[in-house]
């Protein structure tokens, strides 16, 4: 609940600068924030959703790509101690309980350590790519918002201008200030879309670079654990001790049964 409230507050602060576009020049009447938003028309609803989404994504991704979330010191210390002691089973169980990307990457490597160095490194890189892909997808949403919000704002402006000119065609051009007022109101939609697009694109590029740095650090921390692993002594070791669902082919089982019966 607290997170939702904070997100709503941040979104309101992000949209607040649009008040400057709400009152046409020369008018002394001040309008409330809600009144200004209403003047933007129907498009303010999707733009408002884009605003909340932008703030939520920026905050969420900032936290997810921090070292405390990607490579927690406690998880790194636990893994290093277990590796130094040669207790790979305990390391696997500890990483299985963990929820950080580092834990998942090390767990994947330990699950394949009995199959040799190449298999272990492939498992590590596959899990790192999975973490990177998941977070990159979230980052890409900011780019989508940055592209779509100005388009929605422009569509709202065109829709509003159509209504303004339709009104002008009905009542004539007697009062040009009224037409100017209508035009000023519908431009709120364009301004709103741009105000959302700017922080969305800034967040996209900044968080994309931050994610790359975080993933590189994650890869370094996880692969360093396996750098001098004694693979020759761990051959065929089932460190993960997970249930397997790949039995021997049924025809081999039949042949083995026939041999046992013959004996």
Question: Can you give a write-up of this model?
Answer:
With 263 residues, this protein is mainly alpha-helical. The chain has one domain. The chain contains ten helices and no strands. It has helices at residues 2-15, 33-39, 44-64, 67-70, 73-85, 88-97, 101-111, 117-171, 176-225, 250-262. Helix 5 packs antiparallel against helix 6 (88-97) and helix 7 packs parallel to helix 9. The relative contact order is 0.15.
Proportion of residues in β-strands = under 5%
| Arithmetic mean of pLDDT | 81
Shape: elongated
> What assembly state would you assign to the polypeptide chains in this entry?
single chain
Number of DSSP helical runs: 10
**How can the largest sheet be summarized?**
none
Helix content: over 70%
- How far the N terminus sits from the C terminus, by CA atoms, comes to 70 Å
Element order: H for helix, E for strand: HHHHHHHHHH
**Rg from C-alpha positions?**
29 Å
Structural class assignment: mainly alpha
Number of strands: 0
Q: Regions with pLDDT < 50 over 5+ consecutive residues? A: 15-28
How many domains, in number, for the residues?
1
């Amino acid at each position: 609940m607290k997170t939702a409230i904070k997100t709503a507050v941040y979104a309101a602060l992000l949209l607040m600068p649009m008040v400057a576009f709400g009152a046409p020049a020369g008018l002394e009447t001040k309008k409330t924030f809600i009144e200004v938003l209403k003047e933007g028309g129907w498009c303010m609803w999707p733009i408002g959703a884009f605003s909340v989404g932008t703030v939520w994504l920026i905050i969420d991704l900032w936290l997810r790509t921090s070292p405390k979330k990607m490579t927690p010191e406690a998880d790194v210390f636990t893994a290093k101690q277990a590796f130094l002691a040669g207790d790979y089973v305990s390391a696997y169980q500890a990483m299985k309980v963990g929820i950080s990307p580092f834990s998942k990457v090390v767990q994947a490597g330990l699950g394949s350590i009995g199959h040799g160095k190449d298999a272990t490194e492939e498992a590590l890189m596959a899990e790192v790519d999975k973490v990177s892909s998941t977070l990159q997808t979230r980052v890409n949403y900011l780019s989508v918002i940055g592209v779509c919000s100005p388009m929605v704002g422009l569509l709202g402006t065109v829709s509003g201008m159509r209504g303004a000119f339709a009104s002008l065609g009905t009542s004539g051009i007697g009062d040009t200030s009224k037409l100017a007022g209508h035009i000023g109101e519908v431009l709120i939609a364009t301004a709103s879309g741009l105000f959302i697009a700017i922080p969305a694109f800034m967040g996209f590029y900044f968080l994309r670079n931050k994610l790359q740095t975080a993933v590189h650090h994650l890869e370094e921390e996880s692969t360093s654990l396996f750098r001098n692993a004694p693979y020759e002594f761990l051959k065929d070791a089932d460190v993960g001790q997970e249930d397997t669902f790949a039995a021997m082919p049924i025809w081999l089982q039949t042949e083995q049964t026939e041999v046992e019966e013959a004996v």
